[in-house]
Structures are given as C-alpha cells and as structure tokens.
Amino acid sequence: METSTARNKTEARRIETWIQNEMATLGITTIAGRAGVNKSTVSRWRTSVVPAAAMLFSILMSERQAPKGDMEA
C-alpha cells in the first residue's frame, strides 16, 4: 500500500510539472513583468519556490474534505 508521503510526493511532482509547463508557455519575461520582478528571480523560483509550493499544495489538497476533483491543477 502506498504511504501518504509517497502519494504526496507523486502528486507534488504532477503539480510541479503542470506549473513548470504553464510557466514555459507564458514565458519568464511575461511572468517577471506581471510579478514586477527581474527575470532572474523567476528563474530562481523554478528551482526553489515551485517544488516547495507543489509539495505544499499536494499536502493541503490531500487534507481537504472537498469532493475529489475539486481544486485540481
């Protein structure tokens, strides 16, 4: 049986992939402009903030009492 930790890691990888794909589609320059930060800041987010946020979202979603499918990435 898969543990909660393993499920969270698997879900975090799925969320991270989705975020990375969306960032690639939108473009670092566009994201930086809309966030009011330098492009290098957005590049750093890709390696530090995105994985951590994906894990946090995975944990928070696994603890929700909402019906399955609600708030999916």
UniProtKB/TrEMBL annotation:
Highest taxon above the source species: Bacteria
Q: Which GO terms describe its molecular function?
A: DNA binding
Kindly state a single biological-process term from the GO annotations of this entry: regulation of DNA-templated transcription
Alphabetical list of InterPro entries matching this protein? Lambda_DNA-bd_dom_sf, Transcrpt_activ_CII
For this protein, the record's Gene3D superfamilies field holds: lambda repressor-like DNA-binding domains (1.10.260.40)
This protein is called CII family transcriptional regulator
